[in-house]
Structures are given as C-alpha cells and as structure tokens.
Amino acid sequence: MGAAHTFELPYLFGLDDFEPLTRTQHRLSDRMIDIWTGFAHKGRAPWKPTTPAAPNTQSLASGPNGIRPVDFAANHHYAFWTSLR
C-alpha cells in the first residue's frame, strides 16, 4: 500500500486503534523514534538534506533493504504526474 498520511502514528505513539505491531514493525518503530527524537534534539536527520539540485528522499520501509536513500522522482512517479499538466 505504501506510505499515506497518519500511517506513521502506530509506529511513533503505540496507538490502540491499529493492529498490534509485529516484531519487525517494532524494530522499525524503535528506529523511527530514534530518528525523530534525534531530529527534535539536534535539528537534523541522519541523512543529507533535500535540495532542488539533490532531491534526497529517505525510505523508512522495513524489509530487506532497510532504511535507505531512494530516488525521489522514481518513487513518487514524478514523470507521470508532470505529464498530466
């Protein structure tokens, strides 16, 4: 299904309105909380900032590839969306 608005909430706040997290999801939750609290404390994330010249995007997906940089344009189907103008 991919990422959508509010999908991060059970990972960050342990809300009871969602299915319980799996062991893998708990590990991702712990990592996400580390990243978010580090950002709140230090004002920076553990990856390169996004700029117009370098649109860095970080994937926080769990799975075999883990947390990693991804191609912003490809991941967000930029060519498709701009073709609709």
- Tally of distinct domains: 1
Estimated helix fraction:
40-55%
Beta-strand segment tally: 2
Per DSSP, what share of the residues sits in E-state strands of 2 or more residues?
A: 5-15%
Note the gap between the termini. Answer: 26 Å
The largest sheet, given as strand count, sense and whether it forms a barrel, is: 2 strands, antiparallel
- Round the mean pLDDT to the nearest integer and report it: 84
Overall SS class: mainly alpha
**Helix run count:** 4
The strand line-up of the biggest sheet is 1-2
Q: Quaternary state, please?
A: single chain
Shape: globular
Supply Rg. 15 Å
- Which spans have pLDDT < 50 for at least 5 consecutive residues? none
Region (Disordered): 46-65
Biased composition (Polar residues): 53-62
InterPro entries: AB_hydrolase_fold
Protein name: Carboxylesterase type B domain-containing protein
Report on the architecture of this protein:
The protein is mainly alpha-helical and 85 residues long. The protein has one domain (9-83). Helices cover 41% and strands 9% of the residues. It has four helices and two strands. It has helices spanning 9-13, 23-42, 72-75, 78-83; strands at 56-59, 68-71. It starts with 8 loop residues before the first helix and ends with a helix. 1% of the residues are buried.
